[in-house]
Every structure is written in C-alpha cells, then in structure tokens.
Design a protein that fits this description.
With 479 residues, this protein is of the alpha/beta class. Helices cover 49% and strands 11% of the residues. Keywords: Membrane, Transferase, Transmembrane, Transmembrane helix.
C-alpha cells in the first residue's frame, strides 16, 4: 500500500512538474520580452512551438535526476537540493540540445528566468502538497491504522518508514510479539538514523484477534496488519490470515530477512502472478543502466582519442624496452562470472611467470622492466582497458576484475567475495580511490566494492571518476 501510494504521488508530481515547467517557460518569455525590454521581433509563438521538446527533454532529465525516488526526505533543505540538482541537469541537457539547433537562438536571459521560475515552482508545489497532506492527516482524514506483527528489525524499520512519511496517512497502533514488552529498540537504521524508539508491544501473535477486537471497541479499528516475521514462522502467518479473514483488516507479508547478512540488490518481482523474492541479484536493467553504458562509450572514445599521442609514445617505449608484444592480455573475471581478456601495456618480459606461475604483485618485486615499473607506478599500463570498455567487457567505474586463479582461493576465504561480480568490472572503483589496491586488505576492498554495488548511481560514478582524476594515478600501493 505504501509503495502504491508513493507511485501514485510520484506520477502525479511528474505530470504537475511538466505543467509548471511549461508555465515557467511562457512566464520567462513574458518577463524577458514584454516586461524588461519589449521586443516585437520575437513573438511568443517562436517559444511556444518548442514547448513539446522542452517538456520531453526536461521530463527525461527530471526522471534521471532521482527527484522522484521514494526515499526523498521531506526536510526543506533536502527538497530544495533535490530540485536544484534536477533543474541543473535539465538545463545542462537543454543547453546541449540547443547547441545543435542553429535556426533559432534562445535568449540567455530567458533561460536564466526560466531556471529561477521552474525551481521556485517545483519547490513551491512540493511544499504546498506536503503542507496540505500533513494538515489533512492531523485532522484524521483518511488515516489507516496499522498493526505490525513482529517487533524485530523488519517490523521496526517498517514502523520507521511509516513515521518517515506521515503524509501517507499510516498510523502504527502497536506491535504484536511473543517476547512481550521486553523487546528493545534495534540499532538506528541507516535509512532513518534520526528515528530511534522502543516498540510498543500490545499483545502476542496468538492474541491478534483479541487485540483487533479491543481496538475496534475503542473506535480505532485496524485497517492493515503487516506480518514482519521470518519465513520459518509460516504457522503464525497462517494464524494471522485466519484472524484477518473474519474481520475487515487487510494482511501484508514483510519477510524478516535481516538475519541474512549478504543481501545484494534484494527486490521482489512477479513470475506469472507468483511473487519472487530476490535476495542476491545483479542490478535490474533500467534507463540508468542504458545511460551508464552510453557514458562509458562516450567517455572511453574521448579518452582514447585525446590520449592517442600518449598511447603511441607508450607503445614505442614498451616495444623498445624488451622483446615482445606491446599489449599484454590477461584473463580476468567480470560480470556474472564471465571471463574476458583484459588489455594492458606489457610491463614485464615475455614469459615472466612461466617458472613461478601466477604471482600476486607485491612491493619490492623486480619482475617489471624499467619502462614497465614506471607504467605500473603511474597506472598508465591500465589505459588500454578503455578498449575493453568499448567492447562491453568492462565499465569505466566498477569493482576491479581479478584473475580466476586467485578467485578460486579468495571466494572461500572472504565472505561475499563473489557478489562483486554482480556488477560490471571497472577501470577504477570506490575501493581504488580510497587506497585499497595492490597488496592491501582484501576484506576492506570487498567491503568497498559491495558498498558501491549496493549504493550505485550515476552521480556516484561521476564522483569516483572525479576522485580518480583529483587524486591522480600515482599510488604507493601500485607496483
């Protein structure tokens, strides 16, 4: 119910935002050409005919900006920041599109007024909606009373979510738990760190019917019962279903899976009407995935084009440093465990590992050539991997791929190691820009890789790319 109401509000907001953007576009024209400096040579029709294109561009940019994510907090500062980010992205896309249209030049002042007006309208709309909904809820309008069965992590997080979205109109009347009133508050949830409370247990699971009848007699009938219980508690869930079936309360299941530590991209899907719970999965394919791939191709193409003279110089230096090919192809494991040949500039003599076999790079080793040692220290030997990105084997940002021979050892020694292959391997990553590369802690590296996968966004990728450039390519752990 919470998700359905959130989606309804998001779609309504999106349509309202598009309408306000159209209004801001016209009002900006009036201010620029009829109030400040009246100009008859630029009729309103010139700007109105571009409204469909403006709406399409801004609609796509607003969706990509994350403005309609369900976790958006309702603090004024966060609302303003979210709108500012969305407007900034929309303006950037609009200006980029107008660059290719030469038949008509938009007024720069008009675009400034348009940005200010659209920002004000979008923020004002949200403040008006939230203020109206809060006022209506305070008066008891359409409030739905919720009883949560299970006061564990799942139940407490659910209650925090209802408190976090008071404008949704869900009132938690209490918890049912067989532990009685001894249930303690769980540690602060990272999604809602400011909300810490001790759950109010008003009965056991077997007393569900009595509790609902008592609340009904107090003129507080329960509308929804959420069973936030482990999957092993199937008999208790059946008991709740029986009690709800002879009353008007609806029943929803929220499986308590927090005892499973290694969850990744968990979600619920539908297969021919059957609900399927995904505990460990790769990121679902959506528009952001398409945009990420487009950015990978564009960025890699530009890098290879811009650095072509440098790449040619390195290739000559490698060829002159020792006999053998310029490039070194090494088998690595990528997305979903598929292997590929990762390209590098050759930094060691040919057959350097023939006698020793695969060896983990360590400080003080002398296997590299003089040119190769410099390339490794500056990470310039990694530049050919942009060809891997163009081929689709890798992404610009993602967990660094490893050799299968080492993975066979790490997968049994480090919990969750294989989960890093639920994302496409990258040239740079969150672990690398934080110094976890080379002969450093594998456990910390995996921790940072999994954090990246769980919190991935386009903005996160751009941050990592910027950190890679700012911190430079030279690293004390690169050898």
């Amino acid at each position: 119910m919470l998700r359905e109401r959130s989606l309804f509000l998001q779609r309504g907001l999106f349509l309202a935002d598009l309408a306000l953007i159209a209004v801001a576009w016209v009002v900006a024209y009036v201010i620029r050409f009829q109030v400040l400096t009246p100009v008859d040579s630029v009729p309103l029709s010139y700007y109105v005919q571009f409204l469909p294109f403006v709406a399409a561009i801004w609609g796509g940019a607003l969706l990509l900006s994350g403005l309609y994510q369900t976790r958006r907090a309702q603090r004024l500062t966060l609302v303003v920041w979210a709108v500012a980010r969305a407007v900034g992205l929309s303006l950037l896309v609009s200006l980029g599109a107008s660059f290719f249209y030469r038949e008509f030049s938009f007024s720069r002042l008009h675009m400034v007024f348009f940005a200010i007006l659209s920002s004000g309208f979008l923020v004002g709309l949200r403040l008006a909606i939230y203020a109206g909904l809060r006022r209506a809820r305070q008066k008891g309008a359409n409030v739905r009373r919720v009883l949560i069965a299970g006061a564990g992590k799942a139940g407490q997080r659910l209650s925090r979510a209802f408190r976090h979205y008071p404008w949704m109109g869900f009132e938690v009347v209490g918890f049912l738990d067989d532990r009685g009133t001894t249930v303690e508050a769980e540690p602060p949830d990272p999604f809602y760190p400011e909300q810490t409370f001790t759950p109010e247990v008003i009965g056991t699971l077997e007393e569900a019917g009595e509790v609902m009848d008592r609340l009904a007699s107090e003129n507080r009938p329960v509308d929804m019962v959420y069973a936030a219980l482990p999957l092993a508690a199937s008999r208790k869930i059946e008991g709740l279903a029986a009690e709800c079936s002879i009353r008007t309360a609806s029943l929803a299941l929220v499986p308590d899976l927090f005892h499973i530590e290694l969850l990744l991209n968990s979600r619920i899907s539908d297969v021919d009407g059957l609900p399927v719970i995904h505990l460990m999965d790769e990121a679902p394919f959506d528009i952001r995935t398409v945009v990420k791939r487009g950015l990978d191709i564009a960025f890699s193409g530009l890098v290879l084009l811009a650095l072509a003279p440098l790449l040619a110089g390195i290739a000559i230096a490698v060829k002159l440093s020792s006999p053998g090919p310029v490039f070194y192809r090494q088998r690595r494991m990528g997305l979903n465990g598929l292997t590929f040949d990762m390209l590098k500039f050759r930094s060691m003599p040919v057959n350097a590992e023939k006698a020793s076999g695969a060896v983990w790079a360590q400080p003080g080793e002398n296997r590299a050539t003089r040119v190769g040692a410099f390339l490794r220290k500056t990470s310039l030997d990694e530049l050919p991997q942009f060809f891997n990105v163009l081929r689709g084997d890798m992404s610009v940002v993602g967990p660094r791929p490893e050799r299968p021979v080492f993975i066979s050892e790490f997968r049994h020694r480090i919990p969750g190691y294989m989960l890093r292959h639920k994302a496409k391997a990258g040239i740079t990553g969150w672990a690398q820009v934080n110094g976890w590369r080379g002969d450093t802690s594998l456990e910390k590296r995996i921790e940072y890789d999994l954090y990246y996968i769980q919190n991935w966004s386009l903005a996160f990728d751009l941050k990592i790319m910027a950190m890679t450039v700012v911190k430079g390519f030279v690293n004390e752990n690169a050898y």
